[in-house]
Amino acid sequence: PLSGVALDTVKTADNVAITEALTCRNESVYMNYESEVFSDVRMRRAVAYAINKEEALEVCGSGQGKVVIYPCDLGEQVTGNPDFVPSHTYEYNVEKAKALVEECGNVGKTVTIKSYNTEPFQTLSVWLQGSLSAIGLDAKVDTMERSAFLDQLLNGEVEICPFSWANASFDFGAAVGPYMDSKCIGIAGNYGRYSNPRADELVALGNGTNDVEARKGYYRELMEIYMEDVPSVAMYAVISAIAHSNQLVMEDANIYEMARVHWAE
Length: 265
Prior knowledge:
The protein has helices spanning 4-11, 41-50, 53-61, 94-103, 121-133, 146-154, 172-180, 197-207, 212-229; strands at residues 16-31, 65-67, 110-116, 138-144, 160-165, 232-245, 248-250, 261-263. It is an alpha+beta fold. The longest helix has 18 residues, at 212-229.
């Protein structure tokens, strides 16, 4: 997929077509539920208030995406999505964030943002550093190659990071369940090391039935817990833009299969 200047350049070619699709890839900020600073829910809420999602999308995502309230907040295209506005949301509010940091006694506290040393994570990390510094934290950035970062992340050695979670199935349980399932700590998905027995129960209930309306009910309660406990801050879903010959038609930019590409009429 292309973005930014590369996409703008390729769009000018006469023989190239661009197929775009809103994906289930979510750019989020994870906070370590077990860490010294972010074990306090007030600090996780402070980060939620400190994040300007629209700015993150423009600065770090080249504007290619959709701001979300909770992970995979993409309407009916995601099976099982409760598609609602939770009772608690976090508008961008630096003053509220500062007040929470001060209330916790963490003004001037050093926190280290870790991430991959590739894009969009390098840009996201520097942008997040500015957001955290603005609310009174002494934010540092430590970028590293992929395997080193993943080792530290899965071992619980990362206190805060920008990271993606993607799922091609467009199923809410598969796309969002791992965010909050304690069984996924140290494996994949639950990068914030969040643990809540009721969340585990709701994930299992939602994944254990084929009744779509029942699933929506379970996931609605799950997202209410998500917004209350803030294991991560979901920022935006990414638009995938695939460049290809204008002699071809791509049926779905989310699925890179030649079987779904055919000659144009």
